[in-house]
Design brief:
Layout: H1 6-10, H2 18-32, H3 42-56, H4 59-69, H5 104-110, E1 125-131, H6 133-138, E2 140-151, E3 157-168, E4 177-180, E5 196-202, E6 208-211, E7 214-221, H7 223-228, E8 230-236, E9 239-245, E10 254-257, E11 270-276, H8 284-296
Parallel strand pairs: 1-5, 7-11
Antiparallel strand pairs: 2-3, 4-5, 6-7, 8-9, 10-11
Helix pairs in contact: 2-3
């Protein structure tokens, strides 16, 4: 029988990690899948790739194979029978059945009762899903469009748009990851479909700044509201509330509305940043009042500048 260099077949180095092997296998399996590939000898390549993956993904199989490979065999070289199959014990717990079409080399090394080609599994899909702050607050459902490769009536691989209904949890935060089982790339059967992983992104809001579950909102106030204090209407995601502006409030001062941020355990807060807003002075009476205030007050806002 001929020695098979599984590392060469799957396109990784002998030092490759399990994750690198997995990535390389999935890429090649998709490329040479007999149902979609136009490559020459696609079915044989697909079988060889599957056989290499069955060996290299399992630590015990890989160790047994590495022991034989260390003897210096090269790909395609005629060799004597490798060590008997009873020396091998799988650490993966997977019994692959008896309906194999893997090579004699594989059968001799690992035994017929432990080998079979695994049905191709669909790839997982990762995507960003942008939602509004209001959707994050209230929760609900949204439609998500996903392009997936599929085989058309002419046997050609084309991108098909699928629409998926996504349930948005109440109070979801920016960066939350959601897993939708079986909504990724199609596999050989529906049970082997990949999963869809969505990372939620909160779209920038016209008024609110978002940090975790907390929200920050700039609130304009008039000079007299700042000096005298006032009750002012403030928007929140849950509706309009009345907030108290303390007397002698300063522009840039930060006030908190407890529990008015995104829902959760505990819920977030909403912070108000007071912004002094100067009204236009158009009447003589208004100008006269400012002149009286200027005479009455000795306040110098530039004293820290030394002037």
């Amino acid at each position: 029988m001929k020695f098979k260099d599984y590392y060469k077949i799957i396109g990784v180095s002998p030092e490759a990690s399990a994750e690198q092997i997995k990535t390389a296998y999935r890429k090649l399996a998709r490329k040479y899948h007999p149902d979609v590939s136009k490559e020459p000898n696609a079915e044989k390549r697909f079988t060889d790739i599957g056989e290499a993956n069955e060996v290299l993904k399992d630590p015990a199989r890989r160790a047994a194979y590495n022991k034989l490979r260390a003897a210096g065999w090269s790909d395609g070289q005629e060799i004597d029978a490798p060590p008997p199959a009873q020396e091998y014990r799988s650490t993966s717990g997977a019994d692959l059945g008896a309906d194999t079409d893997f090579s004699d080399f594989f059968q001799s090394l690992f035994g017929r009762s432990h080998s079979s080609r695994r049905q191709p599994q669909g790839h997982d899909v990762h995507a960003a899903f942008i939602i509004s702050l209001e959707e994050a607050y209230h929760g609900g459902e949204r439609q998500f469009s996903l392009q997936s490769p599929t085989i058309n009536d002419h046997g050609e691989m084309v991108d098909k748009v699928r629409t998926i209904t996504v349930k948005i949890p109440t109070g979801v935060q920016n960066g939350t990851k959601m897993r939708l089982r079986g909504q990724g790339q199609p596999g050989a059967t529906s049970e082997l479909n990949g999963d869809l992983y969505l990372e939620l992104e909160l779209a920038p809001h016209a008024f609110y700044r978002i940090e975790g579950r907390d929200l920050t909102l700039d609130i304009p106030i008039t000079p007299w509201e700042a000096v005298l204090g006032a009750q002012v209407a403030v928007p929140t995601l849950g509706g309009i509330v009345t907030a108290t502006i303390p007397a002698n409030a300063q522009s840039g001062q930060k006030l908190r509305l407890k529990g008015r941020g995104l829902p959760g355990t505990p819920p977030g807060d909403q912070y108000m940043i007071l912004i002094l807003s100067m009204p236009p002075t158009t009447s003589d009476k208004a100008k006269s009042l400012y002149q009286e205030l200027a005479k009455e007050s000795s306040f110098n806002p530039r004293v820290k500048l030394g002037v």
